[in-house]
Specification:
The longest helix is centred in the first third of the chain and has 24 residues. The protein has one domain: Spermidine Synthase, Chain: A, domain 2 (Roll). The N and C termini lie far apart (about 70 Å). The protein is α+β, with helices and mostly antiparallel strands.
Length: about 80
């Protein structure tokens, strides 16, 4: 009986964690434009900029002043250019 209870609780915990992961995936990616007003209260994460000498896409996940999460995609110059 205890083993059955452990299996049921383990399954419920796994389902809850999977549900949270799905919520993160459902955030639409917004494309940045210079005329766009941004409401950034807290930056959650930023993608790493690769070591290439060209313009590459980057993403920032942030929370606005209302607590809603957003993913913003924008273009940056890679870190691989030398000034020589």
């Amino acid at each position: 009986m205890k083993a059955l209870l452990v299996l049921v609780l383990g399954g419920l915990c796994g389902a809850a964690m999977a549900g949270e992961a799905n919520n993160v995936e459902q955030i639409p990616v917004e494309q940045y434009s210079y005329s766009q007003h941004l409401d950034i209260a807290r930056v959650i994460s930023m993608s790493e900029v690769p070591n290439v000498c060209e313009v590459v896409p980057a993403r920032m996940t942030y929370e606005d002043s209302k607590g809603q999460k957003h993913i913003l995609e924008y273009r940056v110059m890679g870190n691989g250019c030398s000034n020589g």
